[in-house]
Design goal:
73 residues; alpha+beta; 3-stranded antiparallel beta sheet; 3 strands; 23% strand; globular
Length: 73
Amino acid sequence: MKKLPVAKHLSDEEYKLLLETYARHNSAFGLEKRKDYTLSDIVKVERNTSENCLNVHYRNGDWWHYLPNRTWY
């Protein structure tokens, strides 16, 4: 599986979580807002073991928690 450079450190399961949650998250945005939240706009992905999620940082400065149940906040 070829991974995004910012997510190479993730396990395959974590990477799958990132992509699946990203797809759901992105589809919740309107077309204009989606432009700021493309996969290439992800600048950092951190494991957050204390909250059992991934912290996903975007180029515009926003970041989100991506949870195992494919939701985010």
